[in-house]
Amino acid sequence: MAHDTGLIAWLRSLPERQPPNQIDRRDPVDERYSAIAVNEGLAALHELPNYAVDADRTHVLLVDVTSAGLAALAE
């Protein structure tokens, strides 16, 4: 299954972020691609329970690329 090249680029960029694999869904790009990735089963999002700023906890998430996501990256 072919995926949007922007989505694949976004998935590839996750390990290079600081901190790695964390996104902020207040960013429109992160919001868009994280929603697509979850809907397509390419990633799962997890809250960071020990995040330093309580107000940011629901926005700053850890992205876990699924096996389907890894397969999409290998295509």
Describe how the helices and strands are arranged.
Elements: H1 5-13, E1 22-24, H2 28-39, E2 43-47, E3 60-65, H3 67-74
Antiparallel strand pairs: 1-3, 2-3
Looking at this protein, list some descriptive labels:
75 residues, 3 helices, elongated, 19% strand, alpha+beta, three-stranded antiparallel sheet
Please report which band the strand proportion falls in: under 5%, 5-15%, 15-25%, 25-35%, 35-45% or over 45%.
Answer: 15-25%
**β-strand number:** 3
Distance between the termini: 9 Å
Give the overall pLDDT as a whole number: 91
Report the uncertain regions.
none
The biggest sheet, with number of strands, parallel, antiparallel or mixed sense and barrel status, is: 3 strands, antiparallel
**Overall SS class:** alpha+beta
Count of DSSP-assigned helices = 3
Number of domains: 1
Please list the strands of the largest sheet in the order they lie side by side: 1-3-2
Rg of Cα set: 12 Å
Return the string of H and E elements.
HEHEEH
Looking at the structure, what is the overall shape?
elongated
